[in-house]
Design goal:
Length: 277
């Protein structure tokens, strides 16, 4: 009998995870199937109850997406260092009824930037827009990659400052306001980790932060040229990318954790890529 995995979120109808893991399973000849579960938003303990039902039915692992990454972290029996530092989980493995939690979002983003986009971060100036869950997940993997400087900017600057203090033991990270960016010069990599693109909005970032030889990376995917990517393109940035590679790379990390096999990602990225324009 094949092993069962699932992605849980709400809403869940647009998820690409079953397609991605189905392609990985076929390419690596793993006997598994993967389903999508719409998790209940209410009452507060209903998410954990749904996960427990899936375990009781023989489920082996799960991916967790919005809005359950914090609830997933809280219900886990064991948490990796990555999940603990992010304060959120995006993958579970079930081991004799115990719930093991991981977070592969940050490492997936880093792999996409460094391996797929050929942009090593060592010695580079990196700007992260936003200080929510997505930025938190990227903080440690980015600092571990050895940038010359990492700047976090957020409208509510105290959130950026709190994140920067957490990151300080791991590398050179500071917080900034959007107004302050005008004095910060150019960055080699600018990552939009705000949720602004989900509503078609543009964070108030000045075009002076972009470097024409640099990279602009949008965490959202499949939204074509978002206002952020358009701003970067108009500022002359040649390397603009959305988050499709991050999505596939975090899935590959989960697949490796569950099955002990690392699937190739490029063919799956190619299949899911929506041209920017
Ligand atoms: P996620 O898990 O996607 O990171 P989140 O934790 O709700 O979501 O965080 C959203 C981030 O996007 C925050 O940093 C938020 O800024 P504030 O903390 O100042 O609210 C940022 N954000 C959302 N909409 C934005 C916009 N239009 N311009 C700039 N930043 C925005």
């Amino acid at each position: 009998m094949s092993d069962t995995y699932a992605v849980i979120g709400n809403p869940i109808n647009h998820t690409k995870s079953p397609l991605i893991h189905g392609l990985f399973a076929r390419a690596t000849q793993q006997a598994m199937h993967y389903v999508a579960i719409e998790g209940p938003r209410e009452p507060a303990d209903a998410f954990a109850a749904t996960v427990r039902e899936f375990i009781a039915a023989g489920g082996k692992g799960m991916n967790i997406t919005a809005p359950f990454k914090l609830a997933a972290f809280e219900m886990a029996d064991e948490r990796s260092e990555r999940a603990t530092l992010a304060g959120a989980a995006n993958a579970f493995k079930f081991d004799n009824g115990r719930v093991l939690a991981e977070n592969f979002d940050g490492i997936g983003l880093l792999r996409d930037i460094e391996v797929n986009l050929h942009t090593p971060l060592a010695g580079k100036r990196v700007l992260v827009l936003g200080a929510g869950g997505a930025a938190r997940g990227a903080l440690l993997p980015f600092l571990d990659a050895g940038p010359a400087q990492l700047v976090i900017v957020n409208s509510h600057v105290e959130k950026a400052q709190a994140l920067a203090s957490q990151g300080t033991p791991h590398g050179p990270v500071t917080a900034c306001t959007y107004d302050g960016l005008a004095r910060m010069g150019r960055f080699d990599l600018v990552v939009n980790a705000t949720s602004a693109s989900l509503t078609g909005d543009l964070p108030p970032v000045p075009p002076t932060v972009f470097s024409p030889q640099g990279t602009a990376y949008e965490l959202a995917y499949g939204k074509r040229l978002t206002p952020f990517l358009r701003l970067a393109r108009n500022a002359g940035v040649a390397g603009v990318a959305d988050g499709v590679g991050m999505l596939v790379e975090q899935a590959a990390q989960a697949f490796l954790w569950w099955r002990g096999v690392r699937p190739d990602t490029q063919a799956v990225i190619d299949r899911l890529t929506v041209p920017l324009d």
